Amino acid sequence: RETSRVSRKGQHRWLKQFWQNRSLVLESGVLEHLSKQQLLLQESMYEVVTTEFSYLESLTVAVDHFMESPALSLLLTPHDHKSLFSSIARIKEISQNFLDAMIRELDTSLFFDVCVVIHRYTSQHFGAYVDYVRNMSYQEHTLHNLRKQNPQFVEILDQLQEHPLCNRLPLKSFLVLPLQRVTRLKILVENILKRTEQGSKNQTSAQIALKEISKVVDSCNREVGKMKQMEELVRIANKTEFECKALPLISSSRWLVRQGELTELTDKENIFGQRKLSPVYLLLFNDLLLVAVKKGVDRFVVQDHVHRSLIEISDGEDVECELDRTFRLVLLKNHKGSTSERLLRAPSLEERTLWVQALSPQKRGEEVIYEEWDCPQVQCTESYYTQQPGELSLQLGDVINIIQKTHDGFLEGKKLVDGEQGWFPISCVREIANEHVQRRNLRQRYHVLQTASHLLSRRYLPQECRNTTCF
């Protein structure tokens, strides 16, 4: 069986399905001298070529049949057309060049090392795949809206999809091909690496190629994760209204950490001296906490909100029953700019533990690690030049976001000017005022007041304090 390839000039060349069936290989007589492992290695390398050809064929359908369809081009606005097809034409061009490069190696060498070509193209050109994946959410959103709002688009698209070229596959199947291809390419390189000899040149090139393609796949997966986070954020924003001061929820740097319903034990008491219970719904994001109540089945009304770093958690010590399921939530600076407290009860002990862990500041031994949404800033007061790998050179006046602080006087940071990241001594910088510092001062003030209040209560209040009961 043979596979055809159409070059840019429209000339047909033929690829055998297997490396061992190529005329060049058969005429050389080399098959008699190859071990099974060596043959499998060559077939694994050759599989990259044949699968790239099949992938390019499908990309050609996506571009030539769908994207360049005269009917769609006339119907869609330039913005919708760009959003729907993104940079798939550029992806096709990269695939064509990648395949051409591998074919040239095949034509000039009996034993070709495909990993050399993979490394070159992934390091120099495959950043376009990451950009394409980043825009896939806009593609899906555009396709969904066009199908929902434009009957003429649905009619044209159905006609295009019925063409034999599509093999009964919808447009969406063609649009996700780039993401599927980079994932498969990584698997193919892993298979090549497994079949190389220890310490061989092939093993080295396969390891280098795998490292590069893994970077691309990891970047694509991060973009997919961000895409899902953004979709979830949009869904929450669409079903949320504010009873208090509103704030924009949708942000590329925000994602949902945890959500769920708890019970608030209010200060109001019934005739039996028992606290009244009121349902409350918490939506915890990486940088923000919303305190809401449910409205109907799937909508929320936000009553309060606070920056995540301005949350304090303590035990519900003044409640007699089900103490292990309660905790006190303190908002040090809520939407009104004041401090508020809520006594909450989780539906189970496990839920209580999970909520306390999620809401509490994370501690990692002696080292302090900061999040991007709440990190201190420093300014360089004394130039520093790297002395070993992993360090960061600083010039006078550089402003750096701190990522990590160690107990031995070193900081890890990222320069604002160019995003360069590394370690440097704390002695060459000084902290500058920003929102992180203001929030830290507010937390310290709260802790001082709490300590003073605790000492006064122990000194002046009777030993047996009145306990509050609940249902």
Automatic annotation (TrEMBL):
Q: What is this protein called?
A: Ephexin-1-like
Q: Which PANTHER family match?
A: EPHEXIN-1-LIKE, GUANINE NUCLEOTIDE EXCHANGE FACTOR
Q: Which residues form the SH3 domain?
A: 373-434
Q: Does the keyword Electron transport apply?
A: no
Q: Which CDD domains match?
A: PH_ephexin, RhoGEF
* Entry keyword set: SH3 domain
Q: Which residues form the PH domain?
A: 255-364
Q: Which residues form the DH domain?
A: 40-223
Short name of one Pfam family for this protein? PH
- Cited SMART domains: PH, RhoGEF, SH3
The terms under GO molecular function for this entry are: guanyl-nucleotide exchange factor activity
